[in-house]
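SEQUENCE AND FOLD
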Amino acid sequence: MSWAAITEAHIVTHIAGAELEGLRAAALADGQVDPVQPSIDQVTELVRGYVAACATNTLGDAGTIPTRLLGPACTLVICEIINRVPGYELDDDRGDARDKAIRLLEQVAACNYAIEDPETGEDSGGEMEVASSSTRKATRDSLNGL
């Protein structure tokens, strides 16, 4: 199957482990839960919603997303975690990466970006029908004098 659950191991390929731990510690107040897993869960559902918006896509198992979308999803998870930390702002690079990730998801929802089918691994998300006709609409005679 070519779909996977987002894990913390995926997240640390997009952020330094020390920075993630710093954000985690800063986001934790008395009585609050670790922000990482809830952020992963929220982004997973967000991505699945965009995928499901395209009628030609098939959703994989609950809690999984297309592996092709893991990178953008990790970017969104990091942004969610940063937004939980008071006084910690997204820098321009991360803001741009977040915007790019959302634009890609919008393309998935519009069936303009193929994701892998969860069962076959083949691309899905857009089929093209080619229409052709051998009947001429214009001839030399009908265009004569134009």
User: Anything to note?
Assistant: DSSP finds six helices and four strands in the chain.
